[in-house]
Design a protein that fits this description.
The chain is an all-alpha fold and 94 residues long. The protein contains 5 helices and no strands.
């Protein structure tokens, strides 16, 4: 399996895990939005999911390569995650 395929699979697995937890994230943040100073709960959840996906994919690639990903690699990860934005928004807002 190519490195890109492994990375794409990891991003998909990460997203599936985080997307199934959306109701829990929304409930938890809704209950604590005053403390957290969150105005838009769903946008906050969107940011959490994007951040988790970018961070986990970058960490996984660093582990595979045994070193920090290059700027080009980080841009590739970003593009792969950003390609999933419509799916992420649909799950959060539907």
């Amino acid at each position: 399996m190519s490195e890109d395929s492994q990375l794409e699979e990891l991003i998909n697995m990460t997203l599936e895990g985080t997307l199934t937890a959306i109701p829990n994230y929304i409930q938890d943040i809704e209950q604590n939005k005053t403390i957290m100073k969150v105005e838009n709960v769903k946008e906050f959840v969107f940011g959490v999911i994007i951040g988790m996906s970018l961070g986990m994919a970058t960490t996984a690639l660093a582990s595979i390569r045994e070193g920090e990903p290059s700027i080009e690699d980080q841009m590739k990860i970003r593009d792969m995650v950003y390609a999933k934005i419509p799916q992420i928004r649909e799950r959060i807002y539907s």
